[in-house]
Amino acid sequence: MKTWRNRNKSVFVALILALTFSLLAACSGADTEQPANTGSNTGSANSDSGENNGGSGNSDEGLTGEFEIQYFVGGYGDTWWKHVISEFQKANPKLKITQTAGSQINEQMRPRWIQGTPPDFVYIDGAGSNEAQMVADAQLMDLTDFLKGATNADGKKLLDIAIGQPTDYGGKLYTMPLVFGSWGTFYDKAWFAENGWETPTDFESFMAVSEKIKASGVSPYIHTGVYPYYINGGLVNSAIVAENGGDASIISRMAALEEGVFKSEPVMKALGKIVQMRDAGLIDPGSIALNHTDSQMAFLQHKAAFIPNGLWLENEMSKDIPEGFEFDFVPSVMQDKGEKYVAIPYTASVAIAEKAKNPEAAKAFLQFIFTEKFAVDWAEMTGAIMNVKADLESSSAGPVVKSAMSYFNSDQLVVAPALIVNADVEQALQDGIIALLDSRITPEEWGDRLEEAAAKAR
Amino acid sequence: MTAKPSSYRFRRALFILGFTLPTFLLFSLITAYPMLRGLYISFFEWSGYSGSMSFIGLDNYKRLLKDNIIGTAIYNDYFLVFWKVVLILAIATFLAVALTRMNLKRTGLFRVVLFFPNLISVVVIGVLWRYIYNPSDIGFLNAFLSLFAGDPVKTVWLGQENTAMWSILAPAVWAGIGFYMILLMAAIMNIPESFYEAAGIDGASRWHQFKHITIPLIWEQMKVSIIHIVITTLNGSFIIIFLMTEGGPDNSTQVMGSYLYQIGFQQYHMGYASAIGALILILTLVTSLILNRLLKRETIQM
Is the Cβ pair B50, A226 closer than 8 Å? Predict the structure, then answer.
């Protein structure tokens, strides 16, 4: 009996140990999620940490003091960031740079933003980040005057070499777009050639080729209904600009929530075209329940001919692209014959915290990274486009990126500002388009909804 | 026996404190504080990202009353609660009885198979069922139905108002059955075999045995199951909704939990989200109290 009891006891002890270890394991698991403070500090910090004068050092010694950069690590990786930061460190050996980065960085750093001890410089991207909200919360520094005069190391003005301009928040600028990409309509060039389908150049040819595709038993157009911002970016917004005679200022008026803009004629006409597409049965009815993986897989498997998406698509699906598939993209398909293409960009911006401790270093870093050289590095390291007009033809960037760059450099294209709106209005835009595509509401009701949401947010 | 030495009392108090104090501290820290803090935030306008909060009194609660989506969300929550209780309990009871009272072979295997969904992460369940419902011919359900229909079936299960909530209900029930089945099996196996033997000698049919012996003796466990399903559904449906539809299309499959997430973390109204949280808390409390009252039966001792 005694041995049995002892064994029981040891089982008990083992259980306790197992529990303790699983707890410890859970804790250490959480530890790995902590921000990676991989400061590449080159030794000189100790010597001058006492004489931190805010970092306005002269050109010989570079900047001094401490400088913290927060950046989100997602699809673009962190290679480019590590690269530019180490270059910046070389130029400013006395600066103590701290990198705070990771895929969960927005959530992890949130307490510090709330408490008023944010990092100096921030790259706004990824889940849990929203540029417009940070501006509304007065978290970002007003960069209006700085950006107007800022030049890079080559002596070029930042705003001149940028493809997409910073978002205008009531006459003020708080952010500088770093990543520049375009929404558009994607298709398989090889498959189109094989079937004798023409690449659409305007709404008329788009409708014609779509009917042809439909007649052959393929769904002409599929989209990501669970995340309606795909079709908003790839179809609706470019239609609005096109209906406004190619004048992209309507996007800024929408972003500024101007009264009546959501019921204005160009918007209603654009929605009319969407309804025309819907009623012709060109939009795959299954789209409404698809997430991005579902819709993109259906597109790759030739279940549908066109898909609205962003320039990241080829990279994202690179593991699943079937043999012989040839990605190509048209920036917009909603313009009338003879009108210019419209590029609706998506951007991810960098900014400086309103409560930055070392704003001089942050501004210097901003000027430092906006060069053509780093832009080519970005394209090669991430497969995406940095917001600098650079010559990518000789670089190792992918074909879609190069084709996009040639559209951006063409005079047959209008580059609209990115539509960055209040989060409530964004939600209404997404709900609204799905309701419209599902015939639950009319374009007028769409307008009523949006005007109501905008009025509340104003 | 006169008064015990004070050192005994002291030791006794210390003993009790030793158990209650850490528990109380932990409870305060991880249950009471967040709850009260949430209630506190619900009286403010706060983005969740800003350093400043402004007090707006009951405005967030007034907004609840005017918000149409809240109505949809409450309706969807109770839709899931009602059908989950009915279907899970009916199926779990049937299976529990079948596996304990019907002399089936290989009950061990069935137990494992039926319990299996409980071991799979909800995320996997979501992905799995999204494939089943896929509207194109990758979708299992449509492909299966196409075998019987002449034309290929192209129902958009998760995209139509009349099928979306039912389609979400199915995996929720499927994933829930195993646990309650095990719970009820344990209860049934506690009933002495002699009860059934005596009833059998008296000529009671299997149905009568089930109705007059099994049900009364496992009632306590069934009651616990019902309340548990109600609470976990009201608090936890968020996950399955988010995996299947994200509340869409056009907010028609929103439940309170998913709407709370959308308002708080995607639309940046943490104050209003906290008010929704308070609503969930109140509705859960009221529902379980009412159910407790309704389900009260005389406890039958063996």
Answer: no
CATH of domain A37-178+348-396: 3.40.190.10
CB atoms within 10 A of CB A332: 31
Q: Which CATH number fits domain A182-346+417-457: 3.40.50.720, 3.40.50.880, 3.40.190.10, 3.40.50.1970?
A: 3.40.190.10
Q: Residues of B with CB below 8 A from A435's CB? A: 249-250
User: What is the rounded average pLDDT of the residues B146-158?
Assistant: 85
| Residue pair A71/A98 in contact by the 8 Å Cβ criterion | no
Q: Comparing A37-178+348-396 with A182-346+417-457, is the CATH topology the same? A: yes
* Yes or no, beta carbons of A435 and B130 under 8 Å apart: no
pLDDT in tens, B174-233: 998 999 999 999 999 999 989 999 998 998 888 999 988 999 999 999 999 999 999 999
Tell me phi and psi for residue B127, to 5 degrees.
-65, -45
Which chain B residue lies closest to A222 (C-alpha atoms)? B136
Q: Please, which residues have CB within 8 angstroms of residue A96's CB and are 6 or more apart in sequence?
A: A39, A41, A45, A49, A65, A66, A67
Residue among B50, B158, B266 whose CB faces A427 most closely: B266
Quote the pTM value.
0.82
Chain B residues 180-239 with a CB less than 8 Å from chain A: none
Write out residues in chain A with pLDDT < 70, as ranges: 1-61
pLDDT higher for B107 or A109?
A: A109
Is the minimum CB–CB distance between B267 and chain A shorter than 8 Å? yes
Tokens 């983005």 sit on residue? B47
Q: Which residues of chain A have a CB within 8 Å of the CB of B50? A: 114, 136-139
Q: How many domains, chain B?
A: 1
Query: In a 3-state reduction of DSSP, which class is residue B295?
Result: coil
For residues A196-206, one letter each, b for 16 or more C-beta atoms within 10 angstroms of the residue's C-beta and e for the rest, the string is ebebbbbbeeb
The mean predicted confidence, pLDDT, of chain B is: 90
Chain A contact set for B48 (CB, 8 A): 110
Check CB contact of B20 with chain A, cutoff 8 Å: no
For residue B49, give the nearest of A133, A288, A440 by CB distance: A133
DSSP string, B167-218: HHHHHHHHHHHHHHHHHHHHHHHTS-HHHHHHHHHTT--HHHHIIIIIHHHH
State residue B2's pLDDT score: 55
Boundaries of every domain in chain A: 37-178+348-396, 182-346+417-457
With respect to residue B235, please indicate whether it lies within any of the assigned structural domains: yes
Residue B261 lies in a domain: yes
Tokens linked to A438: 């599902």
Question: Which of B37, B31, B56, B43 lies closest to B275 in space, CA to CA?
Answer: B43
Instruction: Give the best residue of A438, A441, A442 to mutate against chain B (max B CB count within 10 A).
Output: A438
Picking from B142, B156, B162, B251 by the largest number of A CB atoms within 10 A of its own CB, the best residue to mutate is B156
If you count residue pairs, one on A and one on B, with CB atoms under 8 Å apart, how many are there? 86
Is B37 a domain residue? no
Please report whether residue B74 resides in a domain: yes
Structural domain of B83: 55-294
Residues with Cβ within 8 Å of residue B184, at least 6 apart in sequence: B92, B93, B96, B218, B221, B222, B225
